[in-house]
């Protein structure tokens, strides 16, 4: 493909294709049933408010997806990458002011403020509905309203949930098609009366007659609003990731966490893997790490120790339900990966690189002159000439990143070379291990085992992560991110801690997953990581699995159970004994200071904080003071 062809399609002012209605637009699928009336009434209602030119019921077919992508290329909204390097793949460039989730513009509009709790932005439903009615009025003029029925989890599965997203963004439709299971089978379920969640999204950029569209329509004013009492999401003004693919963070975490509270299950910000030991035995591990703390990397782990294998099940969201057998059963409700591109390379996550061979929508990465993509960390050396994520010429001397630091890839999970064969099994997999982790330069050891479920919930509730490496060591500069759910829990986080404790009560004591805290990011005084991380994290998993199997003892410490050094598989690693000591050292004074911060944090929940967690904190202090 000629360079000129690629770049000519990047113009932000390319004229949209003719606006005449196309065959298929406005046609409802030929499905009938008692549940359909509510769906059509809702679509009519949203259409009356937003006043689109056309309505398109998305059927999820490959032909429909192809047509949508072609149309976006024609309109200058996507750049088709050179199929020789990246078949079936596209680059989207967002508006420079619309590049990430926006926590400050995200609300939980529960009837009661107390239900949202101290960690969420709360707003009264009546008040925000008035605002939303104002901004959504006529917001889809000149555009197509897409009706996108989606299932999280296999369609009809016992742990699955369905929803519908209305959106005026074709980019969102294409992304939802990768990240979820879209299709008329979902409408059939709705018609049969299955419960479903209503989500509405508009980029908030109506077009006047004859007005030319831009490559990335959006609005300066943004609202991402959740109504947990009526199971609805309304999102306005942003086209990006979690603000626009409402099935993901908005539904599968914030709304689903509320459904899970009411129904007795857990919607978690966790990756999910199957670990296979040298004897061929399989174990299932779920792990909660805050954003940019290694979920996708661990989900795609390639062990450096012989005989071990990891199969990917999910990299971001896990739904977990107690089974009749007293175990916890888990599914990945998503169908794709929406991963951070920068830092993803052959030497860190070769599985991701192999996954991205084609059929991928890239957003805000750099474009190579040969029509392929590039981002910082893809290769050690940057190409001499690129077009950066804003569409400007770039060279290594430009002094700015070529790809936006939050640039992303959107790709189907089935393309992952180590995806588990049964990754879509509707009943899920039984959990053996739960990990909690964050990015901690100091204090937190490489791995600690919880003494029991309640101690494990305590560890989850105290997860914190350094905002940047430059602030290492100062506990006051940590961001609290309990269970890695701070931005994603749809209700009072104190009640959420209580819910975790309750779920533990439903498990058979010998079948509850064992809980561990891990930290790949501890640093030495010289600022370098003490632990090699990535593939070598399998060495930590190896110890964890042998603990679960009862093959090794552990050492009790004030903060939990630590490995005996001789039980760690460290052969072939260049790790000095002083680094090893430092990886597991527990500094009493720092931990007492951290306990004070935990108490302050706990106090913000008032009576919603479970007594069992206060007791865990008191026990921790007692052990530290006695040590
Ligand atoms: N030092 C170190 N960095 C890691 C490790 N795992 C992931 N990272 C880095 O952490 C960042 C975020 O990783 P990613 O897996 O995308 O995190 P996610 O947002 O939680 O899915 C990337 O820059 C990774 O290279 C590790 O074990 N050690
Ligand atoms: C996945 C998203 O964000 P993050 O990785 O920061 O949680 C998102 O924007 O949907
Ligand atoms: Mn990720």
Automatic annotation (TrEMBL):
It catalyses: oxaloacetate + GTP = phosphoenolpyruvate + GDP + CO2. It is an enzyme of class 4 (lyase). Mn(2+) binds at residues 249, 269, 316. Pathway: Carbohydrate biosynthesis; gluconeogenesis. Its main location: cytoplasm. GTP binds at residues 292-297, 408, 439, 534-537. The keyword ATP-binding does not apply. Its cofactor is Mn(2+). InterPro entries: PEP_carboxykin_GTP_CS, PEP_carboxykinase_C, PEP_carboxykinase_GTP, PEP_carboxykinase_GTP_C, PEP_carboxykinase_GTP_N, PEP_carboxykinase_N. The keyword Metal-binding applies. PROSITE patterns: PEPCK_GTP. Residues 42-261 form the Phosphoenolpyruvate carboxykinase GTP-utilising N-terminal domain. The active site is at residue 293. Residues 1-26 are annotated as: Disordered. Its EC number is 4.1.1.32. Binds 1 Mn(2+) ion per subunit. Keywords: Cytoplasm, Decarboxylase, Gluconeogenesis, GTP-binding, Lyase, Manganese, Metal-binding, Nucleotide-binding. Belongs to the phosphoenolpyruvate carboxykinase [GTP] family. NCBIfam families: PRK04210.1 (NF003253). Catalyzes the conversion of oxaloacetate (OAA) to phosphoenolpyruvate (PEP), the rate-limiting step in the metabolic pathway that produces glucose from lactate and other precursors derived from the citric acid cycle. This is Phosphoenolpyruvate carboxykinase [GTP]. It comes from Microbacterium trichothecenolyticum (Aureobacterium trichothecenolyticum).
């Amino acid at each position: 493909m000629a360079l000129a062809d690629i770049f000519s399609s990047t113009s932000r002012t390319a004229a949209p294709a003719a606006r005449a209605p196309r065959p298929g637009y406005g046609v409802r699928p030929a499905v009938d049933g008692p549940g359909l009336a509510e769906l059509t009434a809702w679509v009519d209602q949203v259409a009356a408010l937003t006043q689109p030119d056309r309505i398109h019921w998305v059927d999820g077919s490959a032909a429909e997806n192809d047509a949508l992508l072609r149309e976006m290329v024609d309109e200058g909204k996507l750049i088709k990458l050179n199929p020789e390097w990246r078949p079936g793949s596209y680059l989207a460039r967002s508006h420079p002011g619309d590049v990430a989730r926006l926590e400050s513009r995200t609300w939980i509009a529960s009837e009661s403020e107390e239900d949202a709790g101290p960690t969420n932005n709360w707003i009264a439903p009546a008040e925000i509905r008035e605002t939303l009615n104002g901004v959504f009025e006529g917001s889809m003029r000149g555009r197509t309203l897409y009706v996108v029925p989606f299932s999280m989890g296999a369609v009809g599965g016992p742990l699955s949930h369905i929803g519908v997203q209305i959106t005026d963004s074709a980019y969102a439709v294409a992304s939802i098609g990768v990240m979820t299971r879209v299709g008329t089978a979902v409408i059939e379920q709705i018609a049969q009366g299955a419960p479903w969640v209503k989500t509405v999204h508009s980029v908030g950029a109506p077009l006047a007659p004859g007005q030319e569209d831009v490559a990335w329509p959006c609005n300066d004013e943004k609202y991402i609003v959740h109504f947990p009492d009526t199971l609805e999401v309304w999102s306005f003004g942003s086209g990006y990731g979690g603000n626009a693919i409402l099935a993901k963070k908005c539904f599968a975490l914030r709304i689903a966490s509320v459904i899970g509270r009411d129904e007795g299950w857990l919607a978690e910000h966790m990756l999910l893997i199957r670990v296979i030991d040298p004897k061929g035995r399989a174990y299932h591990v779920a792990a909660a790490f805050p954003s940019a703390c290694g979920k996708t990397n661990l989900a795609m782990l390639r062990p450096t120790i012989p005989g071990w294998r990891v199969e990917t099940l999910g990299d971001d969201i896990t739904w977990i339900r107690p089974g009749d057998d007293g175990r916890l059963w888990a599914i990945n409700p998503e169908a794709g990966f929406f991963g951070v591109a920068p830092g993803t390379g052959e030497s860190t996550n070769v599985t991701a690189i192999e996954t991205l061979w084609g059929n991928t929508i890239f957003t805000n990465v750099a474009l190579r002159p040969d029509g392929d993509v590039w981002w910082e960390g893809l290769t050690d050396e940057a190409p001499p000439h690129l077009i950066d994520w804003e569409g400007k010429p770039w060279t290594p001397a430009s002094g700015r990143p070529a790809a936006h630091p939050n640039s992303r890839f959107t790709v189907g999970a089935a393309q992952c070379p180590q995806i588990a064969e049964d990754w879509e099994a509707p009943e899920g997999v039984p959990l053996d291990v739960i990990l909690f982790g964050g990015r901690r330069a100091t204090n937190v050891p490489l791995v600690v085992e919880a003494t029991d479920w309640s101690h494990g919930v305590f560890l989850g509730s105290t997860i914190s992560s350094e905002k940047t490496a430059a602030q290492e060591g100062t506990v006051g500069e940590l961001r609290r991110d309990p269970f890695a759910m701070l931005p994603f829990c749809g209700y009072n986080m104190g009640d959420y801690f209580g819910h975790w404790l309750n779920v533990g009560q439903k498990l058979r004591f010998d079948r509850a997953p064992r809980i561990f805290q891990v930290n790949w990011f501890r640093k030495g005084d010289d600022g370098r990581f003490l632990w090699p991380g990535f593939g070598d994290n399998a060495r930590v998993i190896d110890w964890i699995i042998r603990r679960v199997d009862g093959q090794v003892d552990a050492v009790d410490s004030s903060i939990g159970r630590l490995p005996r050094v001789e039980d760690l598989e460290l052969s072939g690693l260049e790790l000095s004994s002083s680094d090893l000591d430092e990886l597991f050292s527990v500094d009493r004074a720092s931990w007492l200071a951290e306990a004070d911060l935990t108490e302050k944090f706990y106090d913000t929940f008032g009576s919603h904080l479970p007594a069992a967690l206060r007791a865990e904190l008191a026990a921790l202090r007692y052990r530290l003071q006695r040590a």
